[in-house]
Amino acid sequence: MSTLKRFDNLNNLEHKANKRGAHMSTKFIVVSFGMIAAAVAPQRTIPASTDTGALRIAAAIAPRWAGVAAYAVEVNEDTGLAAAPRLLKSFGKTAELNPA
Q1: Each residue of 49-63: pLDDT tens digit?
Q2: pLDDT tens, 71-87?
Q3: Sheet holding 67-76: strands in order across?
Q4: What is the pLDDT of residue 14?
Q5: Three-state SS sequence of the chain
Q6: CB-based burial, 12-45: b 16+ in 10 Å, e otherwise
Q7: 22 — pLDDT class (breaks 50, 70, 90)
Q8: Which pLDDT score, from 0 to 100, does residue 66 have?
Q9: Which residues lie below 8 Å from residue 43, measured CB to CB, with a gap of 6+?
Q10: Fewest beta carbons within 10 Å, which of 3, 46, 70, 84?
């Protein structure tokens, strides 16, 4: 086997291992916001199973809160680390979420 062919085989194996090792998944959440001391603050977080579900929940509870936002979050299942949430849609007054 030529050196170049062995190198290609190693790259393919490494790429497959990296794909398997990540275990990333997308989680969907709805966050309601309320007014506390004249400032908007997150109040309640509701999980959703799909992006459409998150949008439906957000629209349904929006009239009862100062603001509501639906987010998609990429989570590493192995480590529990999450990327910054991606806003799907917001209603009313909302604040920026900072991942802890």
Answers
A1: 999 999 999 999 999
A2: 999 999 888 888 889 99
A3: 39-48, 24-36, 67-76, 86-92
A4: 43
A5: CCHHHHHHHHHHHHHHHHHHHHCEEEEEEEEEEEEECCEEEEEEEEEECCHHHHHHHHHHHHHHCCEEEEEEEEEECCCCCECCCEEEEEEECCCCCCCC
A6: eeeeeeeeeeeeeeebbbbbbbeeeeeebeeeee
A7: low
A8: 95
A9: 31, 32, 33, 34, 65
A10: 3
* Residue 73 in tokens: 């979050």
Residue with tokens 């009313």: 92
pTM of the complete model: 0.73
Residue 77 is encoded by which pair of tokens?
């299942």
Phi and psi, residue 82, nearest 5°: -120, 145
